[in-house]
Amino acid sequence: MAHRSSNIIILTCLIVLATSAAQKNVKRKPAPPARVAESDPDTDITSSCPEDGYYADAEQCDKYYECKAGQIKEKLCPDGMVFNDYNPDDEKCDLPFNINCTNRPKLQTPIPSLHCPRQNGYFAHEEPHECGIFYYCVDGKFNMITCPADLVYNDKTGICTWADEAKKKGCGTKDIFDFDCPAVNETFGLTHPRYADPEDCQFFYVCINGNTPRRSGCKLGQAFDDVSKKCEWARKVPECKDWYNGRLTDAELEALENPPVAKPKPSGAPSRRKPQRPKSKQVEEEVEK
Prior knowledge:
Layout: H1 2-25, E1 53-56, E2 63-68, E3 71-76, E4 82-83, E5 93-94, E6 121-124, E7 133-138, E8 141-146, E9 152-154, E10 159-161, H2 163-166, H3 173-176, E11 194-196, E12 203-208, E13 212-217, E14 222-225, E15 230-233, H4 250-257, H5 281-288
Antiparallel strand pairs: 1-2, 2-3, 4-5, 6-7, 7-8, 9-10, 11-12, 12-13, 14-15
């Protein structure tokens, strides 16, 4: 009985040893590597600097950040200007007309002054029917500017344009011009027909696509011929032959119609070009060799 017990104990020990050895020879499957979060290119610039330079704020068009040696400094453009983010190497504020702020429309609180809704920029006249007057503001000080005749200040571009381009309320073509384009037959008519200005011989109207009038003019001394549809010397247009009476004399009109012609240069005239310096005898000898 004691002998059988000893055999059982020995057999158990052998099984344990064999199992341990088998486990040591089994190759464990390696654990998967830790997942690394990918960097987000749209990470807020206020939390980290991509590299040295100047970067636009994601929401406010006149705010930007200076990154230098890993340090971030928040900055604002002068009131009325916005940050130009075309090149991170340049710290530049620009007029809003030159920069697309659609995706970052917020702006700092304005600091208005007389005729200047903001301290800097171009701004339309306060009266909606003042179509051709606007203001250029610098540090809250304004300069009044008047558009050329028949043009309207365009607050979308900051320049004077035609009324149909500016699309300013109260400043349409019918408000600017006392003229309506006559109806035309598009099949036989011109694309942009011309019509004489009924009030001024020197000017005429071009009807864009037959319906949008734009006023244009002939040069001094000329009048628009409504028959030939082009500019001609006023004295040759019967209904406008006396248009410049009291403004220009006959001699002045004659001078405009027949400007002096530059005389041709005589063929034998000496050249005004600087003569070449004569070569030295030594140089001439070397050339001959």
